[in-house]
Amino acid sequence: MSAPTGPAGIAPESLLPLQQYQQQRAQQRAQAIAHRRQRSLPLGPAMWLQFEDEASVRYQIQEMLLAERIVARDAVQHTIEHYAHLLGDAQQWRATLFIGLPEPARRARELPLLSEAAQHVYVGCGAGPRIVAEANEDLADRHRGRPSAVHFLRFALPAQLRDALSAGEGAVLGCAHPAYAWQRQLPLPLLHSLCADLHSGTPQ
Question: Does the predicted model carry a pTM greater than 0.85?
Fold first, then answer.
């Protein structure tokens, strides 16, 4: 029987021991920040999307293990599985959406509406239909009616869209909520990285 793995085949044995990770943490953090910067972009003035991949998920797992001093194999495996929902595969992209409203008064006023708008984020490619992301699938209420500044999105990409991307079509990211109607092109470096995710991932 093979050893259990988590997202993208992340096995407990593939993670750095706590002491070794702590020694390398500054370097790991700098690399993670640079990597995440390459895979993130704003959508309008108040939303920011971070497209996740194995490297970003692995970093979050290592940070959690260090913060909680987790060393037991079962507990490490549980932590890996806790982050599984963040990672896409050959047919889908995953992203963490952040709503940035630093002023308390503005946050109290606008967060409910923007949290609702997070349910209407989409990607589009060529003449094909928009693909609206599924939001917060790991939560029973999906944050509907319960405002949050963080949302977890899954873009299920049909074969037609994946084929168009493989053929070199550009793609857009947008929000279809009338109170936050924004759209922008996915920058080519990010799009190329996301397409590479599809080619390297395994369908779930």
Answer: yes
